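Sequence in, structure out. Go.
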Amino acid sequence: MKFILSQLGKKTLIMGILNITPNSFSDGNLYLNPKAAIERAKIIEEEGADIVDLGGESTHPRATPISTEEELKRVIPIIEELSKFISIPISIDTRKAQVAEAALNAGASIVNDTSGLQDSQMATVIAKHDCSVIIMHSKFHRSSSDNVMNSIIEELKQSIHQAVSQGIKKEQIILDPGFGFEKSFEENLELMKNLEKLTQLNYPILLGTSRKGTLGKILNLDAKQRLEATLATTAIAIMQGISIIRVHDVKENVRTAKVADAIYKSC
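Output:
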C-alpha cells in the first residue's frame, strides 16, 4: 500500500516497530522467525497502527553491523508475505540503498533511513520509486554556540537540500530529529522541550522515543518497563505538533494519541 503524505494532519499517525533482529535493545530475537514476525505485524495493524516499520539491522550504538546479504535475507521474505496480509503501509528501516531497493520492490512504500542518506545511492533509489522517505538526524556536529536545536535544524536543512538536489520530491520528505542518536541525556531532554521548533521547517516530523535509554535513566528502569515514560513523550510530542510517533507498544500509544489529538487537533 502506497503511503500518501496527505494522510497527515487530521490525526497523529502511529508507526509500529517490527525488529527482525537478534540484538535490538528491547525486543531483539523475538521476531526472527518469519511466522512470528508476520503474526506480530498483524497485531500491530489490529491495535491501530497506521504504518509498520520493519528493520533487519539494529541501530543501537553498540550493535555489530551486518552485511547487506544478511539484512536482505532477514527482511525481504517477510515484506513479500506482509504485503499479502496487511493493509497499512510498510516502511523499511535501513541505511543501505540495496536493501531499500529490494524492499520497495517487495511491497514497502516508505524508506526510514536512520543514517540521513549517507549511502550515496539511497536518494537515487528513493527518487526512482517516488516513495516517501524519513530522513533522520544522526551524525551530530555541535555548533559553536552549543545550541542543540540550532545544530539539529541546520543539519536537517542540509539533508533536505541533499535529498531535493538528488531528485527526491519535497512532498515525500519526513524528518526525524533522532532522539537518542549521538545525543547526551541532557541534549535529548532539550530536544523534547523544543520539538515545536522543528515544525518551522514545514515538513512532517516523526519522533521515536519508545523505550529508549534516556527514559530509563529518568526512572531507573529497564527497556521493558518504560511504557509510561514513552506515553508521556508521545503526549508531549503531539502537544508540539509532531506528525508521526514510532513505538513498540502500539495499542497504548494509539489511545494516548487519540486523547491528545482530541485536545490539540480538534477544530
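Check: Residues 16 and 250 are 6 Å apart (CA to CA). The two ends are 29 Å apart (CA to CA).
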